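User: I'm putting together a small comparison set for a docking exercise, and I want a reference complex before I start. The sequence is below, and the ligand is threonylcarbamoyladenylate. Could you produce the 3D structure with the ligand included, as structure tokens?
Assistant: Of course. I'll restate your input first, then give the structure tokens for the complex.
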Amino acid sequence: MNVLKLKTMIQLPTSLIIQTACELWGKGEVVAIPTETVYGLAADAEQDIAVAKIFAIKGRPKFNPLILHISSLDQLEQYAETTPLFIKAAEAFWPGPLTFVLPRRKGTKLSYLVTAGLETVAVRLPAHPLAQQLIQTYGKPLAAPSANKSNSMSPTSALDVAASLGGRIPLIIDGGPTLVGLESTIIDLTTNIPTILRPGGVTFEALNAIIGPVQYRADDALIKAPGMLKRHYAPTLPLRLNALEKRDAEAMLGFGPVTGDLNLSEQGHLSEAAANLFRYLRQLDTSPYQGIAVAPIPMQGLGVAINDRLTRAACIEEERSGV
Ligand code: TXA
Ligand code: MG
């Protein structure tokens, strides 16, 4: 497989381009598409070779499973086992930035590469109308991780995808900047108490209110979602968190009244901060800066997911087996 010599097209979503994407998927190719969280690198979830390309292009370890993206609940039946608790949660939060881990259906055509050999499968129905239209037009679910090289920050625009994976994929569909800006929350419904494996666009409080009690994964538990690996989502410059002002040679990422070279949200709105997080980190991750200082973000609501990403990005410990 030659992933290095492709000419990458960035295209707006005309009906011709949607058709082209479906043809590429049918032929086992990958296409980057927008979702409301971050851009995804999508392939036909039933074709082993297509899914293998995702891992090769990202440089992602094969033990790290992918999320299956669907456009309707009906599509799910062939791939996963559902429960009344799942239906209740899906009615409340789908379409949206929430991924469920469910038992993988026996005898499903789903490629084992998608689930990395696990007997569970992660599924999401994205809220982005274009993502839904693409999956619906293709007629089958798409496996898609975030469309970035392994271990780096997730892309929130078509240009971010091109900067990370340009030359390795044939097509990026440009749906504008993503609204949520952080990856989906992942909740495991195969445990006795529903367990949040990754905080994200849907908060603990919101989940607890509908399907509570829910719990966070214990920190020392087996790594079930390798997105939970310590070093992840990382810019190249070192981060210094909970900073009130910058030091020499640092860029400063502000929040609320703590000002900086850029401010995640002057009004202190966490949803705005989440939407800006990766974009602003990318903008500051350049010379002449030698580090990035980040203002404190409150640990509530979406702030939990923002702090999760920041903590992992700040971790200096090398984790080469990451996502
Ligand atoms: O918002 C999102 O979730 C984006 C968009 C594109 O949908 N996708 C995304 O995918 O963030 P990715 O591959 O970067 O992160 C998926 C996470 C990984 O940490 C993976 O380990 C976890 O989902 N995961 C997938 N299948 C799993 C399973 N069966 N059990 C536990 N974790 C799983
Ligand atoms: Mg990712």
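The longest helix spans residues 270-284. Residues 35, 37-38, 40, 64-67, 97, 99, 101, 115, 118, 120-122, 124, 144-146, 183-184, 186, 197, 224-227, 323 surround threonylcarbamoyladenylate (ligand 1) (CB under 6 Å).
User: Thanks, that's exactly what I needed.
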